[in-house]
Write a structure and sequence with these properties.
about 575 residues; alpha/beta; nine-stranded mixed sheet; five-stranded parallel sheet; 18 helices; 20 strands; about 35% helix; binds xanthosine-5'-monophosphate
């Protein structure tokens, strides 16, 4: 399993990195960045536990994904939610009592790495069949249905992986309404169906799979291919058919409904209590704080710690949005000097992170104490985090993860956690943010690391260097936004290197800083590619930096991907 938080120490020639070393120390920004990683998160082979409680909803309805460990399980849930139907992922051993309150309208059995004929292969719980609700088995899920209902599954002679052409044939089914007669699908399976269970019909086939889609008249279906991935262009139509035409869902999962329901729920949970949150300028903390504020007004206080390593205008924008536009109660702490003092002489990237993390937690705690008795800590935990922590049990990842929640503050301060976004995906959080009136620029902000510019200044961090980097970074952001590239890039920023080089300006020779520009595309920050920015955008960035930042006389563009490089330079 790939754990995002466990970063390997960067390999320096003389010191061999320890495989356990992590370069992360929790600050508020960490929580933000972590949640950008929901897409394509690899949770293969694990069985997440059921979520703690049902979603708030007047007309509650849900489709439940039984997770057999496919790397695509979360994606299935996202796709169903894109159809405006609430969907949750649960493990195969989740008891019916936990499912029933969600008012399930149907089940989807996910893919998975197992083989149904192996001992201890995970199977679908009996209540799935006894409920008489519609069932859609995908890949391994289809094999589970076949196996449990009296068909036959056998090891394939060769693994089928990649595109295949699906042809509708055999019996007509509402599952394929509005799907063309032939359409590409994405296959990824080893085992195959030898014989369908009794009373099942073929609905579609490919050259290699005579049973690419099967179904019976009790609304139980199996798909050998993956409708949830983008490589199956009609996948969304098929899933939509399943949830609407077959399960009969109404489609009441909208962010407007979510907000209405959450307000009542937060009011009930908090009562007359007091809540604090750590604002960072990022999307999750912004949305969570705004939502809670809408529910309970001044019972929430947001603590905004300026560690002095933020970008130009970041403090003002964040402060103005929340204090002036939203009228929220904000404790703004300008701790720049305190942080910079501790950064004196520090050049090692991990030490920088550690110091910033420690100071952040100390200050947050000091400020929280001043507020008096506080009952809740609000956090922007999202659904992928919930699934990941549930699935990782007591592993190192779980510990890092819990430490991550503002550095273990809840246990030290005995605060209850308030996590109203814990059932949302990132794109849903953005939607909630927009509906709550947050500015687009905040809702669509690229990830920004908790330690901020400190890890984009190579070597010692000083106020002078911070100002140089802020000026250069401003140009990058400005030009990228002007070129309308901001949203399609995972991140784009400047780095202040510790290299000086000779230049010439007018009649004078200069000896100035080298600034590097980094712009990457990525789905999940685990891998990234350098962006092929248009030359004229690069030219404008370079020109403006050397003209507007006198200390800089040379600009280079980073053309390395991750791996082997990382996105940040430190
Ligand atoms: P790397 O540099 O490891 O970065 O490829 C992957 C993603 O993580 C962000 N990043 C951090 N975020 N605290 C954070 O909150 C950190 O210490 C940290 N280091 C890297 C980075 O910006 C990218 O999105």
């Amino acid at each position: 399993m790939v754990i995002y938080f466990q970063y390997m120490a960067k390999g320096k020639a003389k010191s061999k990195p320890s495989p356990k070393a992590s370069r992360r120390v929790a600050t508020s920004g960490d929580i933000e960045v972590s949640t950008y990683l929901e897409i394509a998160k690899e949770i293969g082979g694990v069985q997440p536990a059921a979520a703690k409680e049902a979603i708030p909803s007047g007309e509650r309805e849900a489709v439940i994904v039984i997770d057999f460990g496919s790397q695509y399980s979360l994606l299935i849930a996202r796709r169903v939610r894109e159809c405006q139907v609430y969907c949750e992922l649960v493990s195969a051993d989740t008891p019916w009592e936990k499912i029933a309150p969600l008012n399930p309208k149907g089940f989807i059995l996910s893919g998975g790495p197992g083989s149904v004929y192996e001992t201890n292969a995970p199977m679908a719980p009996a209540y799935i069949y006894e409920s008489h609700l519609p069932i859609l088995g995908i890949c391994y899920g289809m094999q589970v249905i076949t196996h449990q209902m009296g068909g036959q599954v056998a090891p394939g002679t060769k693994r089928e992986y990649g595109h295949a052409l699906l042809n509708l044939g055999g019996v007509e089914s509402p599952l394929f309404a509005n799907v063309p007669q032939s359409t590409p699908v994405w296959m990824s399976h080893g085992d195959k169906i030898e014989a369908m269970p009794p009373d099942f019909n073929v609905l579609a086939y490919t050259d290699n799979s005579p049973f690419a889609a099967i179904g019976n008249d009790k609304n139980i279906f199996g798909l050998q291919f993956h409708p949830e991935v983008v490589h199956t262009p009609e996948g969304k139509t098929i899933l939509k058919n399943f949830v609407y035409r077959i399960c009969g869902c109404q489609g009441n999962w909208t962010m407007g409904n979510f907000i209405t329901d959450s307000l009542t729920k937060i009011q009930k949970e908090v009562g007359k209590g007091k809540v604090i949150s750590a604002l960072s300028g990022g999307v999750d903390s912004a949305v969570v704080s705004t939502l809670i504020h809408k529910a309970i007004g001044d019972q929430i206080t947001c603590i905004f710690v300026n560690h002095g390593m933020l970008r130009r205008e970041e403090v003002e924008r964040t402060f103005n949005t929340f204090r002036l536009n939203m009228g929220m109660n904000i404790v703004y702490v300008d701790a720049s000097e305190r942080f910079l003092d501790r950064m004196k002489g520090v050049t090692d990237p991990e030490t920088k992170r550690k110091i910033i993390g420690e100071e952040f937690i100390n200050i947050f705690e000091e400020e929280a104490k001043k507020i008096g008795k506080v009952d809740f800590l609000a956090q922007g935990t999202l659904y992928p985090d919930v699934i990941e922590s549930a699935s990782s049990g007591s592993t190192a990842a779980a510990k890092i993860k819990s430490h991550h929640n503002v550095g273990g503050l809840p246990s030290r301060m005995t605060l209850k956690l308030l996590e109203p976004l814990r059932y949302l995906f990132k794109d849903e959080v953005r939607q909630v943010g927009l509906e709550l009136g947050l500015p687009e620029e905040m809702v669509w902000r690229q990830p920004f690391p908790g330690p901020g510019l400190a890890i984009r200044i190579i070597g010692e961090v000083t106020e002078e260097k911070l100002e140089i980097l802020r000026a250069a970074d401003w140009v990058v952001m400005n030009e990228i936004k002007k070129a309308k590239l901001y949203r399609q890039l995972w991140q784009s920023f400047a780095i202040l290197t510790d290299v000086h080089s000779v230049g010439v300006m007018g009649d004078y020779r200069t000896y100035g800083y080298l600034v590097a520009v980094r712009a990457v595309t990525s789905d999940d920050a685990m891998t990234a590619d350098w962006s092929r920015l248009p030359y004229d955008v690069l030219a404008r960035i370079s020109n403006r930096i050397v003209n507007e930042v006198p200390e800089v006389n040379r600009v280079v563009y980073d053309i390395t991907s991750k791996p082997p490089s990382t996105i940040e330079w430190e």
